[in-house]
Amino acid sequence: MGSTQDRPAPGRRDPEGRRRAIIDAAAELIVEGGASSLTHRAVAARAGVSLGSTTQYFSSLDELRELALQSLSDLIDAGLAEVEAQLLPLDDAPERLAQEMHAFLSDERAVRADLELVHSGLGDDPRLRELALRWTDRLVEILARHLDPYVAEAIGLYLDGATLHAGLHDEPVSAETLARVFRALMSAPTTATTTTEGSDPR
């Protein structure tokens, strides 16, 4: 998720643009410091608008907070839709999925935002925890529509680790490595072939 600090503030004749900039700024502040960190002054400064704009376009700070949380949720869902589009056909899905994931892992600000959201999710706010879990949980759901559920979960867990790795290192895991891992996991025996119905899997 990019920073609104890199964009000029929308003009006075663009009320919808100003409203969007305020929501984006609030979303960034939530990722960085949690939902309780929002103040009208902090949001206005981040969005590059006057302090009065935050009360002109929103009835309360609670309304702005809810819209910012929804914006974060929408961003996650949009990213997941792009990932799902790379899955079919499954024959070369590992390579296409690897390219998609490598592009994300190479985006330093996107990785930092993701890790900040995870950090915020460790607090007491259930809404932030839900957002922090949303990407991996929904990704596993999407993968499980096409792959063995255990394989889907393994890929999700691996990508959690790859994101942390990208945040701690100068370079992310290579696209080639991602593709090889995905292909190995997708080629693993499924539960249907390793156990029979009614048998003890131990």
From TrEMBL:
The molecular function GO annotations come to:
DNA-binding transcription factor activity; transcription cis-regulatory region binding
Q: What keyword terms does UniProt attach to this protein?
A: DNA-binding
Question: Domain HTH tetR-type, which positions?
Answer: 16-76
Native organism: Janibacter indicus
What is the name attached to this protein's record?
TetR family transcriptional regulator
Record's signal peptide: none
Q: Which InterPro entries match?
A: Homeodomain-like_sf, HTH-type_TetR-like_transc_reg, HTH_TetR
Q: PANTHER family in the record, alphabetically? A: HTH-TYPE TRANSCRIPTIONAL REGULATOR RUTR, TRANSCRIPTIONAL REGULATORY PROTEIN (PROBABLY DEOR-FAMILY)-RELATED
Residues within the DNA-binding region(s): 39-58
